Amino acid sequence: MKKVLFLVFLLLMIAASLVMAENKIIAKVNGSPIYESEVNAVFAEILLKNGIAPNSVDFNNPQFREIKEKIVDQLIDREVLAQHSEKFSYKNIEKDIKTKLSELKSSFNNEKEFQDALKRNNLTEQELKNKIRKNILVRKQIDAIKSNIKVTEVEKKEFYNKNINKFKTPDSVHVKHIIILTGKKRSDIDAKKLINEIYNKINKGESFEDLAKKYSEDASAQNGGDLGFITKGKTVPEFEKIAFTTKTGKVSKPFKSKFGYHILKVIENKKGKTLTYEEVKKQISQLIVDNKLENIIKDKIRKWRKNDKIEKYL
């Protein structure tokens, strides 16, 4: 199910900007600056979540302007929420700030590296603490709002009935395999010869799992070739076809994929099904709470922004 991305943006750690060097002011909320380093830190987080190394991307590339503009708006929303959360306090705030600062410092090799990072961003340690304080107060304010949200049984059942297709599980099969890789390591002929020798050992009664540990050439070897449950569309076509047509408890004949030669052992087949309301009602409750929470926060920020002074320098 879809994550509540708005809340993810609001809760990204402000101090993450220390890993970046740029420090241009890109927006202000009631005079409080938002730096380009903060925008790039969020951008880097998005790239990482999508499997892209941030150091492989030019953050100043014009094609990313729209993305950065959206991030700036999200950071403005977070700053608005932070400023309007400052009256929300609790007794452990100073302890939590100290813990978070200590965690941040531990990401550097020594105190000098940490201080150098502060200088690059024109920040004092006190200013960094203030940023951490804001982030903690935002989180506490969100938690306080969330704790007052109620979800009725009627709402949950209505959500289930409207979204029942989202609660269907696909067919799956639990497989173990032995793979002999082709390519630079060995020729196709040698790989085919070895997989056939292994297959003959299996037919003579040797343990599939022991042979996988001895011969298989991927990370699953240490677990006797166990790949767990797989679903359709998650593996290469040749592998999928054999996995879903081999009977439970049986071992396939050797076959080839683009990676090399395989032998599969099917452990269990599971037919897809529609999860019952009872099985997913806790998940539904959380989804509804998150949706309500997002709407409440957006509404509060929208009202606050009308009276706040927002400046953008894009």
CATH class of the largest domain: Mainly Alpha
Low-confidence stretches: 1-5, 13-22
State the order of secondary-structure elements, H for helix, E for strand.
Answer: HEEHHHHHHEEHHEHEEEHE
Structural class: alpha+beta
CATH architecture designation of the largest domain: Orthogonal Bundle
Overall 3D shape: extended
Radius of gyration: 27 Å
Q: What fraction, in percent, of the residue positions are helical?
A: 40-55%
- Total domain count: 2
Number of strands: 9
Strand content: 5-15%
Kindly state the mean pLDDT as a whole number? 87
What is the strand arrangement across the widest sheet?
5-4-7-6
Q: Output the number of helix runs.
A: 11
Largest sheet: 4 strands, antiparallel
CATH topology of the largest domain: Triger factor/SurA peptide-binding fold
Distance between the termini: 34 Å
